[in-house]
Write a structure and sequence with these properties.
Two copies of one chain form a homodimer. Chain A has helices at 2-6, 12-17, 26-32, 58-62, 100-117, 154-174, 194-206, 221-225, 252-272, and strands at 48-53, 66-72, 74-83, 87-88, 123-125, 129-132, 138-139, 142-151, 178-187, 190-191, 211-216, 231-236. Chain A has 273 residues and is α+β, with helices and mostly antiparallel strands. The two termini of chain A are 29 Å apart. At the A-B interface, strand 4, helix 5, strand 5, strand 6 and strand 7 of A face strand 4, helix 5, strand 5, strand 6 and strand 7 of B.
């Protein structure tokens, strides 16, 4: 939230009003601990660099030390509800069914196929599914599911979006289901500044670290700051791509290499000024 | 439970020990209300008839008054767990995923296809699905689902079972998932006694009621009693196939017709003795 508010993406009032699970607001808690300052006017940042574990499996699998992050994926999130007709699984003939889960399965398949079709770099995931009434001898009458699409090129992401809408409608039609499809997030792809990317590359090459260009799939402070200043990122490998988890792990050597590249990228950009 | 215990399918001790959601046992509650009698030795039943709403949509859709029930479907129930690898939906490339929901969707599709392939009379349903961790930006690591197969011919049901096992294994293999498949119910198909079926048919024809042969998809007392005595059933239409629900509905005329057929079937069998 800090970097998003700083970059002007989130209104300050919304950030202060955000509540945790206990109902406490972020603004009141900042005040309570003495950290609620005053906005300082327009930010002036020459360049912003951020070093991070990859949170994915690519660098580890390819045995590269440094990921030169060229930008962050755009994201579009959707919520889909399919409604058919709940009925007894025994006496209801196949031909008369309006089984919402059969339609939902086709959508999962379509989302996965779209992800594979829009390679390189597309990601497509159905992460949540809720089946109603979720009883073993009742034909599901309603299914809710979520779709998470990511791509570093906005036009490709828009094409994934269009493919989903067209195919979901066709599936609902074929399975005689009602379809409700809502887009709940539209985050544009963020290419990083060419000069910052070059500075990271130069840092990796100066030390002879193996490297590759990479896209950030997750959100980062640098992605928000990139809206108001030149920004870049350095990734290092992490074990099995696991993050936000107690077993998250990276080697000391890789972390040290990431710090070296960070230092030299900052010096590079500072010298250029 | 009463007819199942009477027919010797359920041990009496198991029935008495069954508990409701409040933890009360069936045996203690029978005793409390003065209904716990003593078993009377081997049952002697000349013939057993049961009249019932169809609990399905066929008679209503075809505008037939009487369903001549020729038997009850066999049932096989399965529980399937697919295990892959939970991972962040952003930085995890499509090609490296082990998405349990993608595999589960293929199983839903396969179950539905098997149901259509084994027509007439097959039913195949995935009624429950639980996705773990069920978060919109996490690739599902584990999915639990149930399969309900029904068919009036045991050999066909066995072939449906074999098809499921083979295809589920192939899907798990293709999607790089671990598969656990457990069969939790195996209830044989129960053809009703030819003499009882003929008596129901004669009753319907004597009154000129429109009729058709039909298979019972749900369980009934007659299905248990059929294990120890000649049994038959009469179905009448119900609105939209809905049952076990406050909106369950059947017309007075159809119910009266069902009673007429029941009466004449009983008289027929009694006269035959």
């Amino acid at each position: 939230m800090g970097s998003g508010a700083y970059a002007g993406l989130f209104p300050l009032a919304d950030v202060y009003a955000a509540r945790d699970v206990d109902g406490k607001t972020f603004g009141e808690e900042l005040e309570r601990i003495g950290y609620k300052g005053e906005p300082r006017g327009t930010p002036t940042v020459g360049a912003y660099f951020e070093a991070h574990i990859e949170q994915g499996p690519i660098l580890e699998a390819e045995k590269r030390t440094i990921g030169i992050v060229t930008g962050a994926q755009g994201q579009r999130w959707f919520e889909i509800t399919l409604t058919g007709m709940e009925a007894h699984a025994g006496p209801t003939p196949m031909a008369r069914r309006r089984d919402a889960l059969v339609g939902a399965a086709e959508i999962v398949r379509t989302v996965n196929r779209i992800g594979h079709e829009f390679q390189p770099d597309a990601c497509a995931t159905v992460g949540m599914m809720q089946v109603h009434p979720n009883s073993r001898n009742v034909i599901p009458g309603r299914v809710f599911l979520t779709v998470d699409f990511r791509h570093p090129v906005d036009a490709r992401l828009a094409a994934m979006d269009a493919a989903l809408r067209a195919e979901a409608a066709a599936i609902a039609d074929k399975c005689r289901l009602e379809l409700e499809l809502k887009q709940i997030l539209d985050f544009k792809a963020t290419p990083f500044d060419a000069g910052c990317v070059a500075a990271v590359r130069a840092g990796a090459e100066r030390h002879g670290y193996s490297h590759r260009d990479i896209i950030s799939g997750a959100g980062h402070d640098a992605v928000y700051v990139a809206k108001i200043a030149p920004a870049g990122m350095i990734f290092v490998p992490c074990e099995d791509g696991i993050s936000h988890n107690e077993i998250e792990n990276a080697t000391l050597d890789d972390l040290a290499a990431g710090c070296q590249v960070l230092l030299h990228a900052v010096l590079d950009k500072a010298g250029a000024r």
